[in-house]
Predict the 3D structure of the following.
Amino acid sequence: MEGFDYQYFWRLFGIDPFWLTQMIVFVTVAYTCCIFGVVFGKMGRSPFWGFIFLPPYFGLIATWIFGLGRWPQEKVSTKTL
């Protein structure tokens, strides 16, 4: 049984698969950095910490460090009426 010829599939649309792959990777990485930048910004830290998720496994380590560490926004007063 022959497999599906993906090169023929891409020729139907006139798209270079290498270019499309690079674009999908770029959009995914940019989206990930932006989302984690927003999360770190809401934590009270610099949004540039979102770039820590680029190298493999650094994001997992950063999640543990920031999750178990002291949060800057814990200083909110808890006054009751």
